[in-house]
Amino acid sequence: MQSLRIAPEYRRVTTLLVALAFLVAFVLLGTLVKVPYVALGPGPTVNTLGQLKDGSNGEMIDVVAIGGTQTDPTTGNLNLTTVSVTDNLTLFQAMGFWFSGDDELQPRDRVYPPGKSNDEVDAENKQQMTGSENSATLAALNYLGRPVEQVVGGVDDNGPSAGKLEPGDDIVAVDGVAVEDPNALRAALGRFTPGTEVTLDVLRDGNPVTVRVTLGANPDDESKGILGVTLAEENGDPGLDVDFNVGDIGGPSAGLMLTLAVIDKLSPGELTGGDFIAGTGTITPDGDVGEIGGITHKMRAAKDAGAEAFLVPSGNCDEAKSDTPDGLTLVKVDTLQNAVDGLKELEAGRTPPGC
């Protein structure tokens, strides 16, 4: 019996064909298969003292537009910073981002939680930006001592004021006793026991309205009556208009830089001294600055754009110090006052508190 022998040239061809098949399969896998990761990197920076192109008509508009009052000229930069998110990565794209070292791979569900569509996440980010813009306006007005009024922010659906008070109502008197702030309102209501009907003088859309509410019981002190509403602040100067135009940016982290831009435009002198300052951080109406995500990407974006100093929320300082771009001065901030003081130190050529 003779054994079947395969000629060497056929073995080589077979080996090449098998290798080619594996190569084709690998290329298809790498280019077509999506991985459950996103790439995070430096995003766009926007000068809050500058202008952006209006997406609706192509005209240039102020990022922070103030109307109804005289504004002070500004120069320099107060740039808000962002993180770019690249989604729907193929295996090869993810490998490219990983090898480059410029971007960071993160599990996709950290950015897009399971059960939520991209559109839902984007809508939440837009809502957070709107809240950040409102807080920025109030923080700036509170800092500058400009009029801010307390209004009804929300009404408990099952509370005593349901169907009677509305969000935005300005309660000016309780049974004829004027109230100018939340403490005065609580003191006025504290004179009445639950079940008492009180008469409220309210300004609704600028028009006087009389509302009668039977008070409920305060869960912290059942001897005291409550309206069942939450209070919120809003601009108390009807002639002043503050509008923000940040383009396609979401989330709450632009709050600090938007606040500083409003202050710079509504107060004499310049916060920047003509320099290029960037930063990040959430803001509350009381001026507290909160930490954010992606600080290292934002610092790199700022440095690439030309920033000389970067305002860092104190909660982000440890991470910021771990990867600070060369030549970028970090300014540590806990509050809006810290940020303003730090900018003044920079303008004077001194070194502000850093991370």
UniProtKB/TrEMBL annotation:
Belongs to the peptidase S16 family. This is endopeptidase La. Keywords: Hydrolase, Membrane, Protease, Serine protease, Transmembrane, Transmembrane helix. Residues 207-346 form the Lon proteolytic domain. The active site is at 253, 298. The chain crosses the membrane at residues 12-33. The keyword Membrane applies. InterPro entries: Lon_proteolytic (IPR008269), Lon_Prtase (IPR027065), PDZ (IPR001478), PDZ_sf (IPR036034), Ribosomal_Su5_D2-typ_SF (IPR020568), Ribsml_uS5_D2-typ_fold_subgr (IPR014721). It catalyses: Hydrolysis of proteins in presence of ATP. Residues 144-206 form the PDZ domain. Its EC number is 3.4.21.53. Residues 108-125 have a biased composition (Basic and acidic residues). Signal peptide: none annotated. The keyword Amino-acid biosynthesis does not apply. Residues 108-132 are annotated as: Disordered. It is an enzyme of class 3 (hydrolase).
